[in-house]
UniProtKB/TrEMBL annotation:
The Nitroreductase domain, residue ranges: 10-186
Name of the featured protein: NAD(P)H-dependent oxidoreductase
Claim: NADP is one of the keywords in the record: yes
Lineage: Bacteria, Pseudomonadati, Bacteroidota, Flavobacteriia, Flavobacteriales
TM regions (residue ranges): none
Record keyword Protein biosynthesis present: no
Family that this chain belongs to: Belongs to the nitroreductase family.
Family annotation (InterPro entries): NfsB-like (IPR033878), Nitroreductase (IPR029479), Nitroreductase-like (IPR000415)
Length: 210
């Protein structure tokens, strides 16, 4: 089995982390950079990635995460918070970044800027919110796979009260909402699920060649 498939087979949704083991600063920075480099629609990255380092805040988040121990026991806790709405500022900020990064005048990007705005700005709010959440999940997938390559465990979590997260983390006033949570660390020897065979659909069931 090649390393790509081996790493994906090794990975599982860790149910119990070893609270005594910490991800090194170097490895954690690699994970953050891999996430920063993630693809997103138009390259806009309409989300924020929160690194919850404060232990007291993590304790507050645990009861609104169905009491799951991963919230407090994992080495690091990441919250992906997507925009609940946006206007032209999202595109304008990106275009400015493109201009600076590639050393080209913003005027030359006006046609592309107008194209993005024509496709995005008039969408209903609920459609915008759904779209930004999808972009956050793309980044989540990239972070999880980068972690697997480094043999670092993760557990993607939707089992939490988003409105309570928004309140505790002060997200609403920033136009954000908690979308998905990812504890990062190392599996506990007591986590029996690490020994379970991975259950997935067969290739025949999952793939359709047209």
């Amino acid at each position: 089995m090649n390393n790509t498939l081996e790493n994906r087979t090794w990975r599982y949704a860790t149910k119990k982390f070893d609270a005594t083991k910490k991800v090194s600063s170097e490895d954690f920075e690699t994970l953050l950079e891999a996430t920063r480099l993630s693809a997103s629609s138009y390259g806009l990255q309409p989300y924020q990635i929160l690194i919850i380092e404060n232990k007291d805040i993590r304790e507050k988040l645990k009861p609104v995460s169905w009491g799951q121990s991963q919230i407090t026991d994992a080495s690091h806790l990441i919250v992906f918070a997507s925009l609940t709405n946006f206007g032209s500022e999202l595109v304008d900020s990106y275009v400015s970044n493109v201009s600076t990064t590639r050393n080209i005048p913003e005027e030359s990007l006006k046609e592309y800027s107008d194209f993005m705005k024509s496709n995005l700005l008039d969408l209903p709010k609920e459609v915008k919110e759904n779209w930004t959440a999808k972009q956050a999940y793309i980044a989540l997938g990239n972070l999880m796979q980068a972690a697997a390559e480094l043999k670092i465990d993760t557990c993607p979590m939707e089992g939490f009260e988003a409105d309570k997260y928004d309140e505790i983390l002060g997200l609403a006033e920033k136009g954000l909402t908690a979308t998905v949570v990812l504890p990062i660390g190392y599996r506990s020897e007591e986590d029996q699920t690490q020994h379970y065979a991975k259950v997935r659909k067969s290739k025949k069931e999952l793939f359709t060649h047209i």
